[in-house]
UniProtKB/TrEMBL annotation:
<dbReference type="InterPro" id="IPR054491">
    <property type="entry name" value="MGH1-like_GH"/>
</dbReference>
<dbReference type="InterPro" id="IPR000421">
    <property type="entry name" value="FA58C"/>
</dbReference>
<dbReference type="InterPro" id="IPR008928">
    <property type="entry name" value="6-hairpin_glycosidase_sf"/>
</dbReference>
<feature type="domain" description="F5/8 type C">
    <location>
        <begin position="775"/>
        <end position="922"/>
    </location>
</feature>
<protein>
    <recommendedName>
        <fullName>F5/8 type C domain-containing protein</fullName>
    </recommendedName>
</protein>
<dbReference type="InterPro" id="IPR008979">
    <property type="entry name" value="Galactose-bd-like_sf"/>
</dbReference>
<dbReference type="Pfam" id="PF22633">
    <property type="entry name" value="F5_F8_type_C_2"/>
</dbReference>
<dbReference type="Pfam" id="PF22422">
    <property type="entry name" value="MGH1-like_GH"/>
</dbReference>
<dbReference type="InterPro" id="IPR012341">
    <property type="entry name" value="6hp_glycosidase-like_sf"/>
</dbReference>
Length: 922
């Protein structure tokens, strides 16, 4: 390739925007000081005897909320899609994974009288909501909350403040529970898209069933009060705890119910999130608000099948409530710093399982909202999550398989001219819709810089295969990555303008209109680190091209050109875009140092990203909207209708960039901070592989000691023990096994010691009950390395488009499968010839459930049989988990039997046929 020297316009001055101003009341201080062990546990333990907790106080929203009426408390699946605070009970549009039917969960009416909420008395906290209603002399104090396993509880204190006795009728009703069953009401309801069936149960303390509702009459003397409770469980068969939790809360007194829930809710923070301390209280609060967003927008319903059997992060519970692949990697980058790896592993397992072994696709549970393969870096983010948490090499091997399928699938689907660069002509595929101006420059397909994410996916596959010991596959994926890199550099680099530009395929012409997407190759480290290519970064010195804030998609000069040409589109900005900018700065400041992009710019981005998530900059009211618009130079004039959205990410920036912790594949610990001038910070008690890790900075130059028991300087603690201290913020490489510390960028080591037992990612053993369960559902046994001997498949009937062999390819993804759709038989069999006599004692069956096509369901029943030499016979002592056939994962353990042939005889569910995504035999 010949490079032509270009006459470069001198860069404009550095980003001219200053820093935002925050307002609001004082932010509550934690009740316990910094601990080199778990500060979050110290904070929780300081208040565990009561019902008032720091996280609830920190994120409390009193009175009339300018962000709107949204209920913060939620369960694994149950929440309020919208919230009507005028209703006593749970008014609004109730949801189980998504809006059920646009109706209340339940309401409690009191008569006589008209009870009106006293809005000024309202207090909402993450764990619960309190409000007061009044009618004449009668006052009702309501406290409501939703438990982890989907029980909606309303505590009511009814008080007579008048001068005469009062008799009231209380009536609780729900559109979902109308059938009398003893002293409670029950029902049955399909959730959206028929993904599962909820079995609601409604009860109340002292209430009796009456005409489809629950009634109770109370008489209050002067000054007297009555305390009562209404509870509704949204039970599902796949979450047995939903039944036991409902029974427990039904039996509790109101006071015990509230205390039990609030303590359990706040214990979750102590168990799962790291404590993060920074000098600016507005940024610190936003960090914890983002932790709450991850919890609020998390779906963990274990619906059997290939939709929502894995815990996932959804785009926004109050809006597009689905797991789109565009934002899954952004969420994974934050979720990997929750202590339990299931939070960050679940989303990539889900994407891998639902994507047919090819390019990653949106979760099929909600096909109405988005249904395409977006620009995404799931594999890259998933690999970082593995570097942080680690696990058996079989985990890495599965990740490698998904990543390979996505990289090859993206190229197969989009790279029609076979140059190693994906091309398409639809702006929505970027996830930025009308904000992506390049598509309007000239109609037709464009070779796109988003190919960088295909490259980073191939690299993730290469690294994961290498760790798993599959050298042949690692070499193949390295070759693929090299081909993609060459395609991007040779196709998209425009030497005349010294920029990466999309290319119009039909005319082989570079597209002058750009987005921040053009810089993805720098974000992932694809571009060569030479002065020639770094010239492309000069545009970030000019706020008229790429401002730090607002964080737009489009280059603003090109946006103006597009508008002048008749394509004004929109010019929204969102945390998707700030996430993209953070990734770019994070990579460039380390890998492509230049005179145009600075740590000061990064700091401004950090502050403005935080400011945008407070209504009017007031720290009392954090609200992460889907996007913002109509920036007038000092204020945001429009915030989108989707509130408390978790689009994009940000907490990883404090961990990885400010504190400097860098995920690695080997056993070393690396710090590489971006120095933004903070005098101190702490990231405490991350779960890093098999150890608890803390990073602390206390600037020695000011002589102020900010963390009790922690020396000044830059330190890491492992399992509460100091590992090393450096005298400044600098790059650090530390080997826990030997205690050696290397400072490649200078500085002095003031303390160092070895911390035995800290493992590299591949040496970590993930054996928690939940991790074992979710990986078993994805076809990986974390408890054993025993070989799967399934082979030699045949069947009584095989549907067109399926094959018997597809169910013994080692991966229970949703396609390819063996299926019996169209079979004339009420019962079909699926047989495996093991090639020789083998002693076996367990079969794992993964049944397909294709709710959208509506052909396959788990069978009504099945039987495992072996060939005894002359006939088929049932294997003895069959113990099945679950007892009844269920979509996806089923385990049958039985008395060991020696056989060469094994089969499963399946009686089809009424109106359906049976499919298998995989069969494993041990």
């Amino acid at each position: 390739m010949v490079l032509v020297a270009a006459a470069l316009t001198p860069a404009s001055a550095a980003q001219t925007i200053g820093y935002p101003a925050f307002s609001g009341p004082p932010i509550p201080a934690p009740p316990a000081g910094y601990s080199t062990a778990s500060t979050m546990h110290a904070i929780y333990d300081a208040e565990v005897g009561g019902t008032d907790f720091w996280m609830d106080r920190l994120l409390a929203r009193p009175g009339n909320d300018p962000a709107g009426n949204f209920l913060m408390t939620r369960g694994r699946g149950l929440f309020m899609y919208t919230h009507n605070p005028a209703v006593i009970g749970f008014g609004g549009r109730s949801a189980y994974w998504d809006d059920i039917s646009g109706q209340n969960a339940y309401s409690v009416a009191l008569s006589p009288g008209t009870f009106t909420e006293l809005v000024s008395s309202r207090v909402q906290k993450p764990s619960h909501y309190k409000s007061v209603f009044a009618s004449g002399a009668v006052r009702v104090e309501m406290t409501k909350f939703i438990t982890h396993n989907n029980v909606a509880v309303t505590n009511l204190v009814v008080l007579n403040t008048g001068s005469a006795p009062a008799t009231l009728r209380m009536r609780a009703t729900s559109p979902y529970a109308t059938t009398a069953s003893g002293t409670e009401l029950t029902g049955s309801r399909q959730v959206k898209n028929n993904l599962t069936t909820i079995q609601p149960r409604l009860s109340g303390d002292g209430f009796a069933v009456a005409s489809g509702g629950l009634d109770r009459t109370i008489t209050l003397g002067v000054g007297q009060s009555v305390t009562t409770k209404v509870a509704m469980g949204f039970l599902t068969s796949e979450i047995p705890a939903s039944s036991t939790e409902y029974q427990s809360y039904r039996g509790y007194t109101p006071q015990t119910a509230f205390a039990t829930h609030v303590r359990a809710y706040n214990r979750w923070w102590a168990d799962n999130i790291p404590y993060i301390d920074v000098p600016d209280p507005a940024i610190k609060k936003n960090v914890y608000y983002r932790w709450w967003l991850m919890r609020f927008n998390h779906l963990d319903v274990d619906i059997p099948g290939q939709d929502y059997q894995f815990p996932v992060s959804v785009e926004g519970a109050t809006g597009y409530n689905n797991a789109i692949v565009l934002t899954q990697p952004m969420h994974i980058d934050d979720l990997k710093y929750l202590r339990d790896p299931v939070f960050s592993y679940g989303p990539w397992l889900s994407a891998g399982q639902t994507s047919k072994g090819g390019r990653f696709l949106d979760n099929p549970g909600d096909p109405e909202n988005w249904s395409n393969s977006y620009t995404q870096y799931i594999s890259e983010a998933a690999w970082r999550s593995y570097q942080v948490h680690g696990g058996q090499p079989s985990i890495a091997a599965l990740l490698a398989k998904y990543a390979e399928g996505d990289a090859k699938g993206q190229l197969s689907f989009y790279d029609t001219n076979n140059n190693g660069v994906i091309e398409y002509d639809w702006g929505a595929l970027t996830g930025n819709d009308a904000d992506a101006v390049s598509f309007d420059w000239r109609a037709g397909r464009l070779d796109r810089a988003e190919t960088a994410y295909v490259w980073s996916g191939a690299v993730a596959a290469q690294q994961a295969y290498a760790l798993a010991g599959n050298t042949a596959k690692a070499a193949e994926m390295q070759a693929l990555a090299d081909r993609i890199r060459s395609g991007v550099v040779n196709t998209l680099w425009n030497p005349s303008r010294q920029l990466l530009e999309h290319k119009h395929v039909a005319t082989n012409t570079h597209v002058p209109w750009k987005e921040i997407n053009n810089y993805y190759p720098f974000s992932v480290g694809l571009m060569p680190n030479t002065d020639q290519y770094k010239q492309a970064l000069r545009l970030f010195a000019d706020a008229a091209e790429y401002p730090v804030f607002p964080f737009y998609t489009a280059n603003q000069r090109d946006k103006a050109a597009a508008a002048a040409a008749g394509h004004p589109g929109s010019n929204n900005f969102s945390t998707i875009n700030s996430t993209v900018q953070f990734r770019l700065y994070s990579s460039v400041l380390r890998n492509y140092p230049n005179q145009w992009m600075t740590a000061e710019d990064y700091k401004k981005l950090l502050y403005w990203n935080t400011w945008a998530q407070y209504v009017g900059g007031n720290t009392q009211w954090p609200d992460a909207n889907e996007f913002w618009a109509d920036w007038n130079g000092s204020g945001i004039q429009y915030r989108s209708w989707i509130h408390h959205n978790v689009l994009g990410s940000g907490n990883w920036t404090v961990v990885e960039d400010v504190a400097g912790l860098r995920p690695r594949t080997d056993g070393l610990i690396e710090l590489s901070p971006i120095a933004i001038g903070w005098s101190h910070f702490a990231v405490n008690n991350l779960r890093h592989r098999n150890a608890d890790l803390s990073v602390v900075w206390d600037d020695p130059s000011d002589g102020v000691t900010r963390y009790n028991g922690v020396p000044q300087g830059y330190s890491v603690y492992l399992n509460g023990t100091r590992a090393f201290t450096a005298d400044r913020l600098t790059r650090v490489l530390y080997d826990p096994a030997t205690g050696s510390v290397t400072l490649p960028s200078g500085g002095s080591v003031t303390y160092q010691t070895a911390i035995p037992g800290v493992r590299a990612p591949r040496d970590v053993v993930q054996n928690s009950t939940r991790m074992v369960d979710v990986f078993a559902k994805a076809g990986v046994d974390l408890t054993s390395s025993r070989p799967n001997v399934a082979q030699g498949a045949s069947a009584s009937y095989t549907a067109s488009g399926t094959s018997a062999g597809a169910a013994v390819d080692g991966f229970p993804i949703n396609e390819p499968i063996w299926g019996s759709s169209g079979s004339p038989n009420a019962t079909d069999w699926y047989e495996l010839n093991l090639g020789q006599q083998r002693q076996i004692s367990e079969v794992r069956l993964y049944f397909r459930d294709d709710r959208a096509a509506n052909r396959y369901r788990a069978p009504a029943s099945y039987q495992v049989q072996h060939w005894n030499g002359s006939a088929w016979a049932d294997v003895g002592g069959q113990a099945r988990t679950p007892a009844a056939p269920r979509a996806n994962y089923n385990v049958v353990q039985f008395t060991p039997v020696s056989t060469q042939r094994l089969r499963v005889v399946m009686t089809h569910a009424g109106g359906f046929r049976t499919g298998l995504t995989e069969v494993k035999i041990y």
